[in-house]
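Could someone model NAP with this protein?
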Amino acid sequence: MEGGCAAAGGALTFLVGDARIGCQGLGNWMVRGFEFVAFTSSEEASVAISGMDGKDVHGRMINFLPSFLSQPRMAAENPSTMKAVQYDSYGGGAAGLKHVEVPIPSPKKNEALLKLEAAAINPVDWKIQKGILRPFLPPRFPFTPVVESLLRLPTFLGVSVISDVAGEVVEVGSGVNSFKKGDKVVGLLSFPNGGGLAEFAVTTMAAMAIRLPEVSPSEAAGLPIAGLTALQSLKAIGIKFDTPNKSSNILITAASGGVGHYAVQLAKYAGLHVTATCGARNIELVKSLGADEVVDYETPEGAKLKSPSDKKYDGVIHCATNIPWSTFEPNLSSSGKVIDITPNFTTIAASILKRITFSKKKLIPLMLVPKSGEMEFLLNLVKEGKLKTVIDSVYPLSKAEEAWAKSISGHATGKIIIEI
Ligand SMILES: NC(=O)c1ccc[n+]([C@@H]2O[C@H](COP(=O)([O-])OP(=O)(O)OC[C@H]3O[C@@H](n4cnc5c(N)ncnc54)[C@H](OP(=O)(O)O)[C@@H]3O)[C@@H](O)[C@H]2O)c1
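Reply:
Sure, complex below.
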């Protein structure tokens, strides 16, 4: 593209791409991607193009630039576009994902640009693609998934949508004080910026924590949604993590999944007796995470959720789907609580009924509310070896659709990770 304008008394012509800009009275300008740099002679410009360090010159000359040229831009050594994975309509599953090259987003005042190292796929990502949060999400097409996060939809819907990434801060907006360039972070991306299935993403830092060096990007990326949901579910039952708990029996359904495998470990850390359900192939794994009793959900006893030692549950972290209240009810202690992280309208109706009838047994739908302090708590547990991320599988960004399909299958053991 070619253009022209008047600048500091000289006619400025410019080409978009790697090109020389001629500007009377101001010497020569090189434009690379989004970076404008000034040189005193065309010889200097052609030498500098292969080893450019134009910061001083850039700083001095930027004042002469018309305002549309003086916006903060990507550093010259950085690329201006990135690889990303997007979908452009509802439905389509893994086949609906497309690999694209898109501009790297720019952080606003209270945002940071992250160079992503890893992202985790959660069921909510493909559920949004299916359209369960239509018309609120996605907010637009094309959409880069594992991305739109920390969006609190109207509270009457009680929904928050979040997503997991680990990455390095490469640029911060002027309003970001708590993080700086070079920080390695983990957390949840913020709405409405670019997604986690990409090389870079912009986010507010409200739900970010520093990733400790002892915790790898992949281990860390698994934590935000699944780890925080497990932690908050246990807290919703009344479990404390700073003082000892009275002895309690807990049931965790789908204990081999992303949320369930963290919930088992956190429940044991809190000193609880844990009964867990999972498929036969994962029984040994779930025992190794600390579960005291493990039941195969495909057996008749498993389907009834009965504890092998006939214990009644003081709390249930319900991570599977489609189990009715009538199955939980006979297995609960007199004031047992079921925390349902997969609520549907029936669950919500049952929950309201329990409330208005002052039932001591309770059914509580739970939606994650991200908190960076809790994120730090989980990272410390991983660092200390008290919590681990079981990784089902790791895919490069170029094979994101395989990771997507694996999550849709409903048969992940632990977390599905994309390394970027
Ligand atoms: N409310 C929230 O804020 C929130 C947050 C996170 C997740 N969620 C929801 O919670 C659910 C679980 O998430 P996730 O990430 O843990 O899922 P996930 O990792 O995809 O769970 C897969 C695992 O669940 C096991 N499983 C499936 N059905 C089971 C059953 N009836 N009994 C026992 N195990 C069963 C599977 O075992 P097999 O392979 O042997 O079948 C597999 O190992 C999803 O629906 C997700 O959308 C909600």
